[in-house]
Amino acid sequence: MKKILFLLFWSTILFAQKNTSLPRSTPEAEGVSSEGILNFLDAASKSKHEFHSFMLIRHGKVVAESWWNPYRSDLKHTMYSVSKSFTATAVGFAVSEKKLSVEDNVISFFPNDLPINISPYLAELKVKDLLSMSVGHAKENQGIIVSDNWVKEFLSTPIVNQPGSKFLYNSGATYMLSAIVQKVTGQKIIDYLQPRLFAPLGIENIDWEISPNNINTGGWGLRVKTEDMAKFGQLFLQKGTWKGKQILPASWVEEATSMKIMQNPTATQAQKDSSDWIQGYCYQMWRCRNNGYRADGANGQFIIVLPEKDAVIITTAEAPDMQSEINLIWKHILPALNDKKLPTNAKKQAELKQRIASLALLFETKASASESKFSGKTFGLISKSKSLQTISFDFKNEVLNVTLKTDSVAHTIPFGFGKWVNSETTKFGPYLVAAGKFNRVGLSPFKVAGSYTWQDDKTLELTLRYIESPHTETILCSFDDDRIIVDIKNIFNKNNRKREFFKGVMVNNVANPAKLIVRGDDMGYSHSGNEALIKCFKEGIQTSIEVIVPSPWFPEAVKMLAENPKADVGLHFAITSEWDNVKWRPLTDCPSIRNADGYFYPMLYHNNNYPNQAILDNAWKIEDLEKELVAQIKMALKYIPRLSHISGHMGSTGFTPEVKEMAKRVAKEFNLKMVDVESVKDFGINYIGFDFNKKTTEQRIDGFIAMLDKLEEGKTYVFVEHPGIDNDELRAIHHIGYEDVAQGRQDVTFIFTSDKVKEAIIKNGIQLVSYKDVLK
């Protein structure tokens, strides 16, 4: 195995710059030792940290700048919490324009989002408490970013300490600052800052994430280039002046960079001497040792300002220990900053220039004869999620194209052998706040660089760098003949033993595969059923869900389906309420389909166990059926507008020819398909099943697989069953002649989520589809 270094396109120090760029100089001309910078670059490359860029500004001039290939100067970079300092600056502009004051009460800006009971501490909370991370929460409310209204969620979080009295790092507080600025200016902060900050500094082509309420996230999500970070730091070093013009009040710079609260008031001097996180907190900036201050972002993004040294230091990185990263700066860069101009050191400057030009991230290359064996192959992946369904490999001319297919899109990404191959992808990479609603919404495709090597003949290693972020994915593919295990590692999960390993099997590529709709019926009949149906969709093979609108758990079903927007949904038209212990009523006043108590009859067809309690035992009227069908459709569309079709519960849409025609006509009026009425004739969908009765769970799974083996190429099939969870609730639901509801429906859930079944589907080359897929 040999180590390969790549030359960086961007040689840096003496490169001609745009007039919007910072001026350039040589280190010694600005009193900086080139040798000290060399020592830093050497230490950085040998450290446990992965540096992506570094920039040193002295006396307003860039004296050193470097990017570790494949990272580049023209790329913006996710800064995480460095964004907070930009948000605070937006507050500074708003304060200078008298649109708000740091003494304003936070609740005054959001009268429509306040909790019913406003606590004294919430009433007391001021803008300056948000700025200084001293809100008073017991802990940061991580639930804010998964809620629909982040402001409301923040204001509902209990404040247990008097505002201003105790430090707690709190990204929600920064979001509130963003929301306040937008409230008083009518603009998102990215737009508000454009003429005030970004345009004067020549900062272009940036983006900033938003929340569900179209407010910039504030505490993270801003992406700018390394030099843009340097400009921001230099603006603060120059007390808000830029090219001779005061664009940010010097008083705000002073206010924003002076200590407001101590993170740990009880820290010993020894602790303070070794930590840059207990020097005091300012307005969305941290005080540092050596009388500096900084903007600070997760995993090693820094803008460090040293007023006494007239210097600004920038790093972007993926660092597991940020204190250790800063220590390298104090050890090597700080001593290199001299008070006076140094004699020209042409030898060291040439060495520095050469070193910078050769900076690259190391990787290993090893070839394998296995490439020809697996090229052109696709593996179906078996997992509890649909985040990755298949992986395919295509090796050609030392470039491997890997296609990763999810439940909704296929991502094809090139990886180079002995080189980086740059491309763009819509595939989300690792991200610290990936759980947030709207995370990365609106961002352009992500720039990536890929390379591959073989650890041995059975283990392929893919390195995928998201070169506009701090993060990298390592994808290990372990082959064993027609099987594969895919392990995707990143900084957030590499030490997590619960990390999911995707097991897979080679796909049987069929020219015209059999298509299978796996349908789960009766959503709404019980909480157990609702949970099982969602589980079978998220973790299993189920592709369509049928909902009973008048059922008791319909409101919960609506909520669950809203949380799973990719699930295909059909109205399961119900005119019966079959269970002894659970009943439901028509939505309409339709006396011919109600029993004496106003409920639906339990049965459709005559049943000796329920004499005179079936629709067909009574004088039903088709106009009542039509009225009820229309009402159920309207109710379903009101709460589930993506409804794609209608099916019949217990045969409700086709028990007589006139009912069939009525049902098809009404469905057409609402632009929906009636799938249970002559499906083969209308849509080419064939019903399939197997003998489910009096079988063990394993026998039922094997029976389902045996059924799959009989599916014919080119045909479309639907399998209909009723998932459930065997618990006390479901054991209470039954009727005479059908007492094993809980066990039977639990077995359906086992079948639909079985790895054995998933593997059989892959091996048979069966294509799972939904009604929506087929009917379109």
Tell me what you see in this structure.
Helix 1 (about 35-45) packs antiparallel against helix 11, helix 2 (about 80-95) runs parallel beside helix 6 (about 170-185) and helix 14 (about 525-540) packs parallel to helix 21 (about 740-755). This protein has 4 domains: about 1-75 and about 330-360, no CATH class; about 80-295, DD-peptidase/beta-lactamase superfamily (Beta-lactamase), CATH 3.40.710; about 365-505, Lipocalin (Beta Barrel); about 515-775, TIM Barrel (Alpha-Beta Barrel), CATH 3.20.20.370. The radius of gyration is 32 Å and the shape is globular. The chain is of the alpha+beta class. Strand 19 (about 445-455) and strand 20 form a beta hairpin. It is built from 23 helices and 31 strands.
Biggest sheet character: 9 strands, mixed, barrel
Shape: globular
Rg (CA only) = 32 Å
Strand order of the largest sheet: 14-15-16-17-19-20-21-22-23
What is the CATH architecture descriptor of the largest domain? Alpha-Beta Barrel
Count of helices? 23
State the CATH superfamily name of the largest domain: Glycoside hydrolase/deacetylase
Q: Give the percentage of residues in beta strands.
A: 15-25%
Q: According to CATH, what is the topology of the largest domain?
A: TIM Barrel
Mean pLDDT comes to 94
Count the beta strands: 31
CATH class of the largest domain: Alpha Beta
